[in-house]
């Protein structure tokens, strides 16, 4: 929901490719703002990025356990029969930066082309006879970020649409990893300074300006209902060392401790649901499109990292409280009681073994609080049906009886597995997991390294009522990887995953036991 800070994203494995995909101009969080502003005797430009393509085969993702009470499988079933769905997509990303004479001013942008566009998704004409792909289509060209930075005697001022991340990326994630699909960005005015060995930051985000209309010039727009604007303010402090400093200290046998905390608050007085909700537009009274909302949410997040010779331990924990004084989305229809929520999320990562060692291993774990209501509540569609016991997803707020919103949702780009949370559920929510992992450097090939890694994930639902099988044990997943990464910018990863579902994914109403699902993926990366 809210937050800011460093580029940090967890892919299940294949870490070699992550280092190829992220460069200094990606500027995801507070630590990146102004880090590359230094004296220059001429105007300079920087371009870097990558082209990524992925193909994958998804096998039995509905787990052969039949339909939920709402009449849907856990995952789309191949319409033509069989068990397998084949899919491929691509992305060409460019991070651009222009540095002014003197080096105290920079303008930056992130541009994605063919962003997650499916292979074979835009045939020109009849698909069986088409000989080319259409140039347009969703995701063909997206300017995701554009902002400016200026160094002043008291700190750096940044303004525009910029990346938004913090800590491990559990809550706020810039989407910079090689396998990421989304990433947060905010229209933000930020101030960052250094004092007493700490970074101090403050930011204001205009998260929504409400309904708009064109001014008399027909060019600029105007938000004509200021009370519907969504505002966010964030204050953060942290002790931070960059990667080079960490490596230098570790080589000298020294430990590096970094930590940070932030407080973020978002609010909205009124709302205009007709502007984004068709059902509200159809019920719109002719004289009063604005409704009371009284939305308020506060997040407190803490992050800690210890890097020492032979080890890395990193943890992030967040608590969010939310109040919606008027939860009704229909103009003219009011609720006489509010909706409240307290959401808790914790993620721990650990690695034991030096970077130079051929072998390392660790244990990750996490927890995302759930709602004591059916389903996992991942959907953000307010018109979705209310979840019934045995459903995988659906709305968990059911007025007037169910008024709690306690489900914490990990950011979808914080990846801990390949099948259950990433594909079937959609993210980590209402669950706890343990994730032992290991990697082994097999051999050097040319300018690159061939690496094998494996992770195992055991997961449990927070409440039995959240799971389709009405039991807490969800599954055990095993995710091995064979990856090659080159200093020249080329990388390839061969990824496999198998999910062994447990009782929480069975279908007791139909007497069906969930069966294993598998995934095969090949990912190619060309970085520059």
Structure, described:
The chain is globular. Strand 6 and strand 7 form a beta hairpin. It has 4 helices and 20 strands. The longest helix has 9 residues, at about 245-250. It has a single domain (about 15-120, about 135-525), classed as Porin (Beta Barrel), CATH 2.40.160. It is mainly beta and about 525 residues long. Helices cover about 5% and strands about 45% of the residues. The strands form 2 sheets. The protein has an 18-stranded antiparallel beta barrel. Strands 8-9 form a two-stranded antiparallel sheet.
Q: What can be said about this structure in brief?
A:
The chain is mostly beta strands and 528 residues long. Helix content is 5%, strand content 46%. The chain contains four helices and 20 strands.
Observed structural traits:
528 residues, mainly beta, Porin, two-stranded antiparallel sheet, single chain
Order of helices and strands: HEEEEEEEEEEHEHEEEEHEEEEE
The CATH class is: Mainly Beta
Task: Report the strand count.
Answer: 20
Beta-sheet strand percentage?
over 45%
- Output the radius of gyration: 24 Å
Helix-strand makeup class: mainly beta
Counting DSSP H or I runs of 4 or more residues, the number of helices is 4
Show unreliable segments: 1-25
Percent of residues in helices: under 10%
Mean pLDDT: 89
Counted up, domains total 1
CATH architecture: Beta Barrel
Main beta sheet: strand number and arrangement?
18 strands, antiparallel, barrel
N-to-C span: 32 Å
In the CATH hierarchy, the third-tier topology is known as: Porin
Q: Can you tell me the overall shape?
A: globular
């Amino acid at each position: 929901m809210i937050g800011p800070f460093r580029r940090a994203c967890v892919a299940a494995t294949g870490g070699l490719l992550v280092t190829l995909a992220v460069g200094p101009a990606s500027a995801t969080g507070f630590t990146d703002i102004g880090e590359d502003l230094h004296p220059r005797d001429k105007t300079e430009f920087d371009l870097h990025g990558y082209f990524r393509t992925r193909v994958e085969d998804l096998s039995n993702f509905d787990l052969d356990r039949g339909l939920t009470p709402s009449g849907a499988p856990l995952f789309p079933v191949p319409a033509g029969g069989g068990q397998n769905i084949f899919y491929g997509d691509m992305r060409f990303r460019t991070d651009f930066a222009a540095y002014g004479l003197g080096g105290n001013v920079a303008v930056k942008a992130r541009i994605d082309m063919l962003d997650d566009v499916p292979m074979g998704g835009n045939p020109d004409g009849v698909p069986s006879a088409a000989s080319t792909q259409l140039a347009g289509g969703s995701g063909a060209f997206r300017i995701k970020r554009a902002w400016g930075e200026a160094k002043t005697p008291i700190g750096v001022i940044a303004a525009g649409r910029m990346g938004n991340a913090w800590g491990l990326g559990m809550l706020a994630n810039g989407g910079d990893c090689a396998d990421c699909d989304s990433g947060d960005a905010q229209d933000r005015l930020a101030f960052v300074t250094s004092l007493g060995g700490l970074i101090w930051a403050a930011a204001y985000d205009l998260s929504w300006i409400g309904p708009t209309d064109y001014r008399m010039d027909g060019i600029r727009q105007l938000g004509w209902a200021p009370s519907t604007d969504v505002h966010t303010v964030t204050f953060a402090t942290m002790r931070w060392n960059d990667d080079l400093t960490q490596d230098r200290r570790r080589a000298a046998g020294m430990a590096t401790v970094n930590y940070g905390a932030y407080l973020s608050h978002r609010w909205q007085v009124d709302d205009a649901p007709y502007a984004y909700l068709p059902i509200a537009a159809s019920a719109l009274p002719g004289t009063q499109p604005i409704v009371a909302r009284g939305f308020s949410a506060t997040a407190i997040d803490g992050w800690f990292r210890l890097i020492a010779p032979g080890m890395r331990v990193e943890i992030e924990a967040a608590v969010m409280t939310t109040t919606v004084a008027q939860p009704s989305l229909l103009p003219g229809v009011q609720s006489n009681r509010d909706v409240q929520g307290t959401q808790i999320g914790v993620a721990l990562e650990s690695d034991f073994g030096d970077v130079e060692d051929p072998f390392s291993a660790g244990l990750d774990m996490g927890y995302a609080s759930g709602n004591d209501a059916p389903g996992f509540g991942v959907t953000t569609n307010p018109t979705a049906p209310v979840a019934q016991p045995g459903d995988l997803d659906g709305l968990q707020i059911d007025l007037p009886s169910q008024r709690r919103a306690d489900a914490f949702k990990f950011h979808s780009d914080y990846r801990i597995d390949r099948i259950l949370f990433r594909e079937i559920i959609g993210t980590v929510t209402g669950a706890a997991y343990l994730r032992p992992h290991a990697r082994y450097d097999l051999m050097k090939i040319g300018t690159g390294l061939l690496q094998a890694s494996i992770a195992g994930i055991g997961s449990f639902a927070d409440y039995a009522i959240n799971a389709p099988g009405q039991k807490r044990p969800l599954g055990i997943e095993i995710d091995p990887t064979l990856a090659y990464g080159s200093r020249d910018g080329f990388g390839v990863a061969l990824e496999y995953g198998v999910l062994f579902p447990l009782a929480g994914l069975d279908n007791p109403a139909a007497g069906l036991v969930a069966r294993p699902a598998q995934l095969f993926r090949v990912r190619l990366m060309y970085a520059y």
